[in-house]
UniProtKB/TrEMBL annotation:
This is Filamentation induced by cAMP protein Fic. GO terms for molecular function: ATP binding. ATP binds at residues 216-225, 278-285. The active site is at residue 274. It comes from Marinomonas profundimaris.
């Protein structure tokens, strides 16, 4: 299904319902279909008898309207956004909250993974998110080249690499700001970091668009989303900040909104408002990440949602359109994002298993070596990388960044490996370089 095939759903108005006609359909149908799917009109109309399609849709909407939660955010016509946690979504939400509230140890299989987490997992996975978020926006640099750039902290050589580096800085900044309340200035700061020294769509870093000539296109070049008027951006984003900063814990008898649902709504609204000429997606995903960390869901430090969104850009786009074309029903976007988050948790578990296996290979390699007891975790991991890529060059700056240590500590780790003749030392000007020898395996025996 292409974006341009999404048809606006027939509008539901409770005051105009003919219950005599609709009652049999209300009895026969629920908010979701018999498989638990929360279908949009564009999906439902082909699955039911054509003559009854609209009545069935209105019956479905009746059930949804009875259970929907309205939030204090509205479109330009002052129609509020709402959402409904359908029964099929409750299990997903429970699983997300259960897993996200724990640590990496919750989904890791053994203590080695915990050690990996403490040493370099944050930096490594933040790099993954920075890369895939940029690729989702069109950056074409390969993952290997991009990761090497981030590890070595070298200057980007083109705009695609710049976008990736900016994303890495953006995620670190969002993490540092995780204790702060949301302000319009913070959103501008997020955008400024995301688009620094880029020129796509004539973007001005840290500034709102100054016209309405920007829109989201469908597959045939048609307009599928026209953002609200640029003159109202500041006012509308201030309302979004107010929503973000409002206590929705329900502790004072007020409205309860689960933090993950709220974070997803914030993500959606930046895409919907489209306040910038470019970089809206990156800013939106950073805002999601910021809010989850603010609410102490620490596992999100290790989760890349962009990787999964990149794998399903069509589903991502449709989840936006379904919401807009069905009276601001955010449920479609929320349901899609819950699936993405659960898939991201699965990916994280696979990543941990892979890293654990790699580390075990190093341990096995070193077990019968005279160096086994004299090397620490970082040094063993450097050996693992050098063994995997003979001739690889390490720098103190790269090791400091990868393992979250000072450059002096990194230099100490590398110098010891040189002293043990497991790395070679050379210079590039004033910078010391540490090279993995081609016969590293032999040197370990």
């Amino acid at each position: 299904m292409s974006k341009n095939s999404v048809e606006k759903a027939p509008e539901f108005d409770l005051d105009k319902i003919d219950f005599n006609t609709l009652s049999p359909f209300i009895i026969a149908h629920k908010a979701t279909d018999d498989k638990g799917r929360y279908l949009h009109w564009d999906q439902l109309k082909w699955r039911v008898p054509r003559a009854d399609a609209e009545n069935i849709w209105l019956a479905v909407k009746f059930h949804r309207s009875m259970q929907a939660k309205e939030i204090n955010i509205s479109d330009e016509k002052n129609a509020h956004f709402s959402y409904f946690i359908a029964p099929s979504m409750e299990a997903k939400l429970h699983q997300v909250i259960k897993i996200a509230g724990g640590s990496v140890g919750t989904i890791a299989d053994n203590p080695v993974s915990k050690n990996i987490q403490q040493k370099f997992l944050v930096s490594s996975l933040m790099m993954e998110e920075a890369i895939t978020s940029a690729q989702l926006e069109g950056a074409s640099t390969t993952r290997e080249v991009a990761k090497k750039m981030l590890e070595e902290e070298r200057e980007p050589i083109n705009e695609d690499e710049r976008m990736i580096l900016n994303n890495f800085f953006l995620l670190r900044h969002a993490e540092r700001k995780s204790k702060n309340e949301l302000t319009v200035d913070m959103i501008l700061d997020f955008h400024k970091i995301a688009t620094n020294l880029t020129t796509e769509n004539n973007v001005v870093p840290g500034e709102f668009r100054q016209d309405d000539d920007i829109y989201v296109e469908g597959t045939q070049g048609e307009i599928v989303h026209q953002p609200p008027c640029y003159k109202h951006i500041h006012t509308r984003l201030q309302k979004l900040c107010d929503f973000a900063n409002t206590d929705h814990s329900g502790s004072d008898g007020g409205q309860f909104i689960a933090p993950v649902i709220k974070a997803i709504i914030l993500h959606f609204m930046i895409g919907y408002e489209h306040p910038f000429r470019d970089g809206n997606g990156r800013t939106a995903r950073a805002l999601f990440y910021w809010f989850m960390l603010k609410n102490e869901y620490e596992l999100f430090r290790y989760v890349s949602i962009s990787k999964l969104l990149k794998n399903d850009p069509k589903g991502y786009g449709l989840s936006y359109l379904y919401t807009e074309k069905d009276q601001n029903d955010l449920t479609y976007f929320i349901d899609f994002q819950l699936d993405i988050i659960l898939s991201a948790f699965d990916e994280l578990q696979q990543y941990l298993q892979h890293k654990t296996e790699e580390f075990h290979q190093v341990l096995q390699l070193l077990e019968n070596s005279k160096y086994n007891n004299s090397l620490n975790f970082v040094q063993k991991d450097i050996i693992k990388k050098g063994n995997k890529e003979p001739g690889r060059i390490f720098t103190a700056k790269e090791i400091a960044s990868s393992y979250g240590v000072s450059e002096n500590t990194a230099r100490t780790h590398l110098t010891k490996l040189v002293d043990l003749k497991l790395l070679l030392e050379t210079k590039d000007g004033r910078t010391k370089l540490y090279v993995a020898p081609s016969d590293l395996m032999k040197r370990l025996k």
